[in-house]
Write a structure and sequence with these properties.
The protein is an alpha/beta fold. Helix content is about 35%, strand content about 20%. A hairpin with an 8-residue loop joins β11 (about 220-225) and β12.
Length: about 500
């Protein structure tokens, strides 16, 4: 028997089957289209995502001639904050999914911040007012789609992040599909109270969002209901936002333990235990996980919008490379960055700055600069941004990290991982199972049905594959980092 994880990410959807040792035995994956209607706007087609989800599930089962009877449970992990509205009578989305990177709600957030500032809702939600989160996206849709608010009053318009959309479809859709989410995803909407783990009526009133649109909030690990048709009869028992799932998959169960995921964006989470620590250094306070009826575990999070997406941009927009993996070869063609710095503020700057008016820039260019220097600067940007987040995390938590667990697609890049260790001056460790996001969802699902007994059972599965130790002189790292900080300042307030 296996645990199935559906990992619905920003660029693709995967179904991975895990065995009891936490090893992925079957993986099926399919990309979906990235839609850019206007500068700063990013959308996905929810129906394409649902179709791809069904396809990867069937492909994963077919590869080993399995059926739903071979699956003990299914866990779901998903790109967070991405916002979908649909009609529960038809199952048709009202609009494309507005992706977490989208910045169209900038003016709306600015208007909301006139009363109480950018931290207006931080005490309740742990989050600043920013385009990143789902709440302003819902408000934008309600304000900009003619007649939508009247439809909402009928009680047939549903909101969900991607987990909610997939679960509704998997459990029957128009035929009484479940309308639920878990507390980790709910904590990313700017609408949930961190203490009660319930929707905040005062914030909903401020944004003009009717509560009847919203899903019921559950824990991250429990039996929610059974799939119908696709994986017919298999219980859905785990839900975690992708970064919380990676934390769980890395078995960061103790306060002070942290991981960094290098994907489309970059996300560092530190477990702070049962205490929600309010950040004073530009980080987010968020739910880490909640297992059934146990107390919730909180995290500090540093979110970086563009890391792996920058490599994709070099590939797709500048055509400097043919495949994403080519970036390491190109960057190794030079010995250093040639004093070139690339600040990828394509969606503004996230943690620790929260400057939505910033825009991307390549700085320090001379006639000496080459494609290799730009490629190297793009990789180094990920490491610099991670250090900024780490410094904020240490300042908020008073915990000095002595090592960093890493995962995600970019950790196969040894040049980046070595530079990351150098610029942080701490060891960087990659686990044997790099698919920690999907693994975390599988773990949450498996715990709910007894496939794994407890957290100690999960810890036994974690093994390190590679560790990079600092080799750069600290004084050189400080020189490079100070230049990076100078470059960041040049990108701010580009958009008025």
């Amino acid at each position: 028997m296996y645990i199935a994880a559906i990992d619905q990410g920003t660029t693709s959807t995967r179904c991975i089957l895990f065995n009891h040792e936490g090893v992925p035995v079957i993986t099926a994956q399919k990309d979906h289209a990235q839609i850019y209607p206007k500068p700063g706007w990013v959308e996905h087609d929810p129906l394409e995502i649902w179709q791809n989800t069904k396809e990867v599930i069937f492909r994963a089962l077919d590869e080993f001639h399995l059926t739903a009877k071979d699956i003990s449970a299914v866990g779901i992990t998903n790109q967070r904050e991405t916002t979908i509205l649909w009609d529960d009578r038809t199952g048709i989305p009202i609009y494309n999914a507005i992706v977490w990177q989208d910045t169209r709600t900038d003016a709306l957030c600015a208007a909301l911040s006139q009363e109480g500032g950018q931290d207006r809702f931080r005490n309740q939600t742990g989050l600043p007012l920013a385009t990143y989160f789902s709440g302003p996206k819902i408000a934008w849709l309600l304000q900009n789609i003619p007649g939508l608010m009247d439809e909402v009053k009928t009680g047939h318009i549903r909101f969900g992040t991607v987990d909610t959309w997939l679960i509704w479809n998997l459990t029957g859709g128009v035929n009484d599909g479940l309308h639920i989410t878990d507390c980790t995803n709910a904590s990313r909407t700017l609408l949930m109270d961190l203490k009660s783990l319930q929707w905040s009526s005062s914030i909903l009133d401020s944004l003009g969002i009717p509560i009847n649109m919203l899903p019921t909030i559950h824990s991250s690990s429990e039996i929610y209901g059974n799939c119908k048709d696709v994986l017919d009869g298999v219980p859905i028992t785990g839900i975690l936002g992708d970064q919380q799932a990676a934390l769980f998959g890395q078995t960061c169960f103790n306060p002070g333990e942290a991981k960094n995921t290098y994907g489309t964006g970059c996300f560092m989470l530190m477990n702070t235990g049962e205490k929600a620590i309010q950040s004073s250094h530009g980080l987010l306070t968020t739910l880490g996980y909640k297992l059934g009826k146990t107390k919730p575990v909180y995290c500090l999070e540093g979110s970086i919008a563009i890391t792996g997406a920058l490599v994709q941009w070099l590939r797709d927009n500048l055509h400097l490379i043919e495949t994403s993996s080519d970036v390491e070869t190109l960057a190794r063609g030079v010995t250093d960055n040639g004093d070139v710095y690339f600040v990828p503020a394509f969606s503004g700057l996230y943690a620790p700055y929260w400057q939505s008016g910033a825009r991307g820039a390549i700085l320090g260019l001379t006639r000496f600069a080459s494609a290799g220097h730009i490629a190297r600067a793009a990789l180094e940007a990920t490491a610099y941004q991670t250090r900024e987040v780490l410094e904020a995390m240490e300042a908020d938590s008073a915990v000095h990290l002595t090592s960093l667990k890493v995962d995600g697609g970019m950790v196969v890049n040894s040049l980046l991982m070595q530079f990351q260790a150098d610029i942080l001056q701490v060891p960087v460790t990659r686990p044997v199972v790099a698919e920690t996001t999907a693994l975390g969802a599988a773990y949450a699902a498996g715990l709910a049905v007894g496939y794994w007994v407890d957290l100690d059972d999960l810890k036994k599965n974690w093994m390190q594959q590679a560790t990079w130790h600092p080799v750069m002189e600290e004084i050189e790292g400080e020189r490079l980092y100070s230049r990076w900080k100078k470059a960041v300042q040049r990108t701010m307030n580009w958009v008025d």
